[in-house]
Amino acid sequence: MNSHCKGEMPIDTENDIVMARKYVREAAVALGFGVTDVTRIVTATSELTRNIYVYAGSGIIRWHPINGNAAGLELVFEDHGPGIADVSLALKPGYTTSKGLGMGLPGSKRLMDEMEVLSEIGKGTIIRIRKWLKR
Amino acid sequence: MANGNISVIKIRDILLVTVPSDPDDCTVSELQEQVLSSMERHSAKGLILDISTVETIDSFFARTVSETVKMVALMGGLTVLSGMRACVAITTTQLGLSLDKTLTALDVDRAMELLSDTLNRSEGRK
Amino acid sequence: MKKQKNASTPKSLDSEENFRLLVDSVTDYAIMMIDPEGHVTSWNTGAEKILGFHSEEIIGKHFSCFYTSEALASGIPRNELDLASTQGRIENEGLRKRKDGTFFWANTIITPLCDEKGIIFGYTNITRELSDRKKADYTRSLIEASLDPLVTIAPDGKITDVNAATETITGCSRSELIGTDFSNYFTSSEKASDGYRQVFREGQVRDYPLEIRNSDGRVTSVLYNASVYRDESGAVVGVFAAARDITERKLSEERIKQQSQEILELSTPVMQVWQGVVAVPLIGCLDSQRTQQFMERLLDRIVETNSPVALVDIMGVPTIDTQTAQHLIETITAVRLLGAQVVLTGVRPAIAQTLVHLGIDLSGITTRSSLAAGLLVALDLLKLQVVNKSDNR
Ligand SMILES: Nc1ncnc2c1ncn2[C@@H]1O[C@H](COP(=O)(O)OP(=O)(O)OP(=O)(O)O)[C@@H](O)[C@H]1O
Ligand SMILES: [Mg+2]
């Protein structure tokens, strides 16, 4: 069953965002997340893969279960795009360099239990998010 | 999957549009086009966006919906967002998207009532 | 065949008398004879000295009166006689009771007395009080056998002795522990030294909570029971402290807490009070976790019952802070997205004051001071939405 919960896929086309949502949903359901948490995880996935598609052109998403003291799901979004100049600014609600709402990054952070953003101008961006299974 | 397959039904002067469950960005954009042209074609006064099968609403979807609501309003129409799932409502709120200028209803029935109520009232005022 | 009587007793009166004298002169051993049922039939000076009974007091009494009540309850005296009968002799160590009720550690040998046909007509019972050395060994083995960490501490706070359980729980060997400060082995050394000072001051402490830190970093929650112990002159020599591992208990306490939390949550019922109206009384403090669950349940119920109005009563919420208010606003927003509306009721004066002072804007939200007033609003809302109002006028 856990083989379901681990995987990766490249994000190259717009349709890959839909596929990523589908796979991540399956993984989250298989791990036993409730319907609201599944929706949260899938929504954050949608935001972050779309950011890859829009700002970096292409990238990769990986997901795997977290075991140990606390169980959960970790997802990593990696691209070799332009990078984010000011990460803390990008995490502010409403900040956007496109005509977006500027809610993708700050919203994903609120939806998940943990989020780390690593970004370097000209090199790319790695975003790691985690959700813990309650109880 | 219902993807790419947007159903538009006209009931009197109201358009009922059913949004597919997991639409890609293209479908969402297309939806906007299709809704606007149908509104014009049928000279509809009300629009019900039935999102009861939608499993995720992200910022792109939300932005397109609130844009569409504004555009429909500019064309003299009133939009009701109908049937949002509980888990989606929680997630959307937490994401920070309140869609606060949009009318909402629990299901299509209630959306119809709300629309005809509001439309009748504004009719009466004229 | 000739009959021979009492083969095992000396034949001549002389030797019988000598034997009597011999037995009587032995004062370090309690030597007694017991009949097959266990009644004492003879008693020497040693027995009088060790067990405290005069021979006229004890003869005819059952020998089980030398045993502890626990031993009696498990039928040990009878068993010993039976075992002696089948094995020809038994020797064991155990606690014995004196006439004055005090106990001592004894070595007992019981041998059956048989006639020439092999029929048992009695037993000899030789009981010896064990030496101090033996007693110390025994005490030591008891202490070692204890699963609870035991430790003795000198008045200066240095450890003077420990048992194996202490080695396990601290991860330090006996030699490492002895001579070091007792307080070194706890997460809070201050609290530990306060504890043993309290013992020296008050003579004892009970259920003193401390956390033992193992050398590998693990921490064990324990409760200490400790008291001073004295030398023969009555002077306090040190503290004897016994710890009880309460990790398990703590866990189950936590489990109970969690369960009562669950019960509390379950007892936050979302009731359908009218066709199209649900109501939920919020009771207690609203942390993020609880609000999350409350929000999910409320929204699910709204969808389930197809209710456009939800009455959320906060009468039972003792205090409200910015975070709680934020959670409430989030809930209200999410409910609106569903196509329903929250009417906030039970807003007490104190809560209203706090909300204004905190600068929390609830202006877009319908609020009422009582649930009844809220219900009126709800019905009004339903009329507006569902029923043509003019029909009702
Ligand atoms: N992977 C990325 N590579 C480069 N820049 C990024 C990346 N992700 C986000 N950004 C930058 O951070 C900003 C904020 O992103 P965020 O997702 O929060 O909002 P948005 O994409 O502009 O709008 P929304 O997601 O609400 O439609 C973006 O406008 C963009 O400048
Ligand atoms: Mg974005």
UniProtKB/TrEMBL annotation, chain B:
All copies of domain STAS, residue ranges: 4-115
SUPFAM superfamilies noted in UniProt: SpoIIaa-like
Official protein name in the record: Anti-anti-sigma factor
Taxonomic superkingdom: Bacteria
Organism per entry: Candidatus Methylumidiphilus alinenensis
Segments passing through the bilayer: none
Gene3D superfamilies on file: STAS domain
From TrEMBL, chain C:
PROSITE patterns to which the protein is assigned, alphabetical: PAC, PAS, STAS
InterPro entries: Bact_StressResp_Reg (IPR051932), PAC (IPR001610), PAS (IPR000014), PAS-assoc_C (IPR000700), PAS-like_dom_sf (IPR035965), STAS_dom (IPR002645), STAS_dom_sf (IPR036513)
Recorded superkingdom: Bacteria
All copies of domain PAC, residue ranges: 88-142, 206-258
Residues in STAS domain copies: 267-378
Domain PAS, chain residue ranges per copy: 15-61, 135-179
Key words of the record: Phosphoprotein
Entry-linked Pfam families: PAS_9 (PF13426), STAS (PF01740)
Name of the protein: PAS domain S-box protein
Organism: Candidatus Methylumidiphilus alinenensis
